[in-house]
Specification:
Layout: H1 12-20, H2 27-35, E1 40-46, E2 58-67, E3 70-77, E4 80-86
Antiparallel strand pairs: 1-2, 2-3, 3-4
């Protein structure tokens, strides 16, 4: 699991998104924060579960285009953000 701290990013949208999303946030919190800043938000529920820490439910929220061609992807297990990735 990666935790991003002290990001040095020129893109203010990315900086705001990453400083707002925290590990442990629930699905609604992550969706609300990203929807306010993201031009293309994709939500999906994964079944069968793939993420090792998910016991009941696995969800992914991906924001396309927030940082040019890049993405921010958040994996939630049992309604808690446990992985935040920048692609």
């Amino acid at each position: 699991m990666f935790i991003f701290t002290n990001l040095s990013v020129k893109n203010k949208s990315l900086d705001l998104a990453m400083s707002s999303i925290k590990l442990g946030d629930n699905f609604h919190q992550v969706e609300t924060l990203l929807r306010a800043k993201c031009p293309d938000l994709i939500k999906e529920t994964i079944d069968p579960l793939r993420f090792p820490l998910a016991k009941i439910q696995e969800q992914h929220i991906t924001c396309h285009g927030l940082i040019g061609d890049g993405d921010i992807a958040v994996t939630l297990a049992d309604n808690k953000a446990l992985n935040i990735r920048i692609k």
